[in-house]
TrEMBL record:
Taxonomic source organism: Aegilops tauschii subsp. strangulata (Goatgrass)
CDD domains: RING-H2_WAVH2
Protein name as it appears in the record: RING-type domain-containing protein
Annotated TM spans: none
GO MF assignments: zinc ion binding
Entry keyword set: Metal-binding, Zinc, Zinc-finger
Amino acid sequence: RGSNQAKGQKKPHPNAPPPAPNVVPPPLQFHHSRNAPAPHPSHPHSGGIRARAERAGLGWFGPGNWDRGAMESAWRKAKRALALRLCVLVPAEGDGRPAASGAGGCRGEAAVTVGSAPEEPAAGGGALRRSKSGSRSSSKRKCAICFDSMRSGHGQALFTAECSHKFHFHCISSNVKHGNHVCPVCRAKWKEIPLNRSLSSNIPDGRRGINGVQLPQQDAYVALLHQVPNRQRGVRRLHTFEPTDFNDDESLQQTEATDSLNSRSKKTAEISTYPEFSSIPQSSSQDGFSVLIHLKAPSASSDQATGRLVNESSVRSPSGRAPVDLVTVIDISGSMAGTKLALLKRAMGFVIQHLGPSDRLSVIAFSSSARRLFHLQRMSHYGRQQALQAINSLGAGGGTNIAEALKKATKVIEDRSYKNSVCSIILLSDGQDTYNLSSNARGGSKDYSTLVPQSILDDTRRMLPIHAFGFGADHDSDSLHSVAEASGGTFSFIEDEGVMQDAFAQCIGGLLSVVVQEMRLNMECVHPGVQLCSIKSGSYPSMMARDGRSCSVDIGHLYADEERDILLSVNIPQSREQTSLLKVACSYRDLTNETIKLKVDEVKINRPMSAISENVSIEVDRERNRIQAADSIESARAAAERGALAEAVTILEDCRRRLSESFASRSGDRLSLALDAELREMQERMASRQLYEASGRAYMLSGLSSHSWQRATTRGDSTESSTIVHSYQTPSMVQMLQHSQSHIPSPPGQQPQARPPRPSAR
């Protein structure tokens, strides 16, 4: 077996010229005998062999470092390498790469080179080649760096390069860390590398390395990921099958009521009322008189951990907020391969590390079909490890089946045996559902209701909101917006892949700060001649009595410090006395599950003999501007969908003119000025049909979602925007967003700043 002539190889002709200096020596032959002596370091081929043996994890056993037990372990690894039928070639001079030669080579039945680029075979019968019986499929199942198995679903992340060669993620990322940006197999130069941005992009150096390779220090996600045990240490494997019922959720963490929690529960929501004018003449009656009802949720407690990293020492959920049951539905179709999937994993890692031990998480991954990665489980230290392992093992491939994914996510919530008081679904996709959408009977627009589970459509209280995130220029913004709107959630448009984590951070910053649940606002007319005529509540369900004397609005959950504005219009009769217009009250459940009922003083206006000159209430005028802008955006979008982009731009331009003439804008109101900037941005995104299709539609739908729910959404690269996107942010969202950005440092002067909560003159 130690012969230099491989089986079946012809002997060289006696008159053949001597081999060239770069002739590849015979392949390394491993002897089965345990007592076979190791090659001496002076052996002519020992340098190349030793280097390759060490890179393959085989070790090197030359004179002076003989260890029988270690040699036996190395021999087992050597046998795995032999199973691949690999040969080792000495690098040729010049480029340091192997050179094929006819003088020396592998046995014809197993000639597979390691680390060599495809080359034209040299003349001669001994040129390197792959026979018909070669193990192509076998080599694809092995990592070319460590020679270990690369089967998906076994707790190890895999990386598929642009050249289609696949490696263990930790193997190739370690290789990249040392500056190697070429494929170890074919030597192709990579434009995108593991855990890094595009090498050819113009991203600033401080921002490059968004996935950790070039960051100055490793973040907590990477640190926690390093703690995740591998399957060899006996960690429970991910579910390869799904039960019929998803009632296998982990029980809730037992919490004890404390005096501090009881004291915090005394914080209540605030209600303020603002009539359009403080007085109208006695002899005047007025139709459509505006009254603004302003709500504000209690502040977050000082020790609330929104934006704070959850570590191993955490023994209970942060006080001052309701625990959450969260199901994330993530797209792993073929279009998510490469950098997109790596960024998604990092964003999910950020979410996982900020959930507390009382919060529970389940993940649904979908492509052509959907599967539950793990049951709804508490994010204890062990739970976070399991979640990170599941996320890290994902690979991309297949189509896009959003409907099946949402059906399973809803089933996780509906079948759970235990229930946290707050639950939500986060959906991210970069494509279009190719399995369930169909046009209506007239062949017009698609019926997006087929994507939403029927139980969510039937729930008028909208207790399970779906917060949808559209990623990139190819996602179906209409379908994602429709899904979010039908469930009571928001739609965000992630235009730049670099803000994916920021978008998730802003969303969970709100979800992890819920302090008000199931709020309902009630209004009742006081004076017998006063009658309600309209309610402007956006997407919040409202109901008015037939006689127009009372109405109600279901607000639902509120994040800490979150605000809501409801604009009413009433008809006021003539009167010689001060007129009481409305009684306003609200009820909701607080963190202790206690029902809180609030009432405010009646809304009254004075009735002087003659008219008094006064300005309109800036609070009322500001809200009118916001509603007018939202209506104009909807009208402009409808025109754009008809193909009338010029008409759409004109609609927005007319709205900007009216806003500029309003009292609030002339008074320098920041919200009104931000509305103008938002409308201008939308006009620019309608410059051409191509631009509107690529980003304009999604940007407008995200804006409509934000205005209809009065809740912050991500729009484009919104962390660097000066538009209204920041006007709905709460302090908890800002804190979480800043924490996310601190993990992705930017050069001085280019750090995106999270904006403060929306301006108020109240």
